[in-house]
Structures are given as C-alpha cells and as structure tokens.
Write a structure and sequence with these properties.
RmlC-like_jellyroll, mainly beta, Jelly Rolls, HutD family protein, 42% strand, globular
C-alpha cells in the first residue's frame, strides 16, 4: 500500500498536441516507449500510453484502431460508442475499443479526461486498470520495492503512476524512500491511478 507520493513530471512543462481530427488537444503524460521503464519487469511487461485530453466541444473522437482505451472524465459527459450512448459520471473510468466509432454527445461544461491506451494483443492488454482514489488514503500497491519473486496475487494492484487532480495535473509515482522529495497531497485530493491487475 502507499499514501506517499513524489512528483515524476510537471504537467505545466508539457506541450499540448492537437487531435488528429483537430477538434481538441491532448498532453502526453507517459509515452509508449517510457512506459517500459515505468512498468516493473517483475510485475509484467508491455507498452501503454497515458494522456490528459482537453474536451472543449461535442463531436467525434479520433479513431484509434487496435487500441483499448480507458477514458476518465473529470466532469460528467456522454459518449456514444458504435451507436450506443453511455452516460459517464465524473471521475468514472470507462473502457471501450479505440477503433469503435465514438463521439462526445453531451458536454455540459468544458473539462478534461485522463486516457489510458494499450495496444490490443500487447502483453499489457487487459492487465492495466484505472481507479480514482483519495490521496490521503492508502492505495493497494505502491512502488517497485520488495517484489522480487512475488507471485501473481502479490503483483496484482501494483501502482505505476497517478495523475494529481489538485489543479496541477502533475504525474506522481509512489515514494520509495531514500532522498526523494515527498509530494504534499492533502486528503480530499483525487488521484487517477494506473495499476496492474493480473
């Protein structure tokens, strides 16, 4: 478990990139290449991406065929996926096929969304999940220390990274001791956490 964190990357230092369809922007927090370093080899292998999208208007999403997506909006929205509407409450992870015809069909206010993307067929596919937790509460998992030889049950729930919803949107990782500086995250601050589940 962990409820202590350190800053891994400052959101303010990153540059937004336009969506392929030009209807929004996204900031890449973790690239597929970097995810290999963040994924502990004793837990599992695989490549994944994490980003924070800005949702400014209703309309179609850029298709991402061959990708599994978990979309976590900071405010309530509605997505229509292959013709089926889905009302998604605030801070509720929603999984769907990136290749599906997907549109943002209700956007009561401009907001952001955390996106986890895993290539279908990759060794990480189906093994990563997203949960929203209070920064002041212990979270199952926590860093990569002390897991050599761990069995699959012990590996489940291992935390990789989290997005701090304290207004900064910084990327944080579990504090593992040593000389690392603690990130002060008050209770009541939500974290969008990426964990390994199998």
């Amino acid at each position: 478990m962990t409820n202590t964190w350190r800053t891994y990357r400052r959101f303010a230092d990153l540059t937004p990139q336009p969506w392929a369809n030009g209807r929004g922007t996204t900031v890449e927090l973790v690239s597929a290449e970097e995810s290999v370093q963040l994924t502990d080899a004793t837990v599992g292998t695989g490549r994944w991406r994490l980003s924070l999208a800005s949702l400014q208007e209703e309309g179609p999403f850029s298709p991402l065929p061959g990708m599994d997506r978990i979309h976590t909006p900071l405010d309530a929205i509605e997505l229509t996926v292959d013709g089926i509407p889905h009302r998604i409450p605030a801070l509720t992870p929603f999984a769907f096929d990136g290749g599906a015809a997907t549109s943002l069909t209700s956007l009561p206010c401009p907001t952001r969304a955390v996106n986890l993307m895993v290539e279908q067929g990759d060794s990480a596919a189906g093994r990563l999940t997203v949960q929203v937790v209070d920064a002041g509460a212990p979270v199952t998992g926590g860093g990569t220390d002390g897991i050599d030889g761990a069995d699959s049950a012990d590996r489940a729930g291992r935390i990789f990274v989290a997005v701090a919803l304290d207004g900064t949107f910084d990327l944080v990782v579990p504090h593992t001791g040593g000389g690392e500086e603690f990130r002060d995250l008050a209770g009541g601050t939500s974290l969008v956490v990426v964990t390994w589940v199998a």
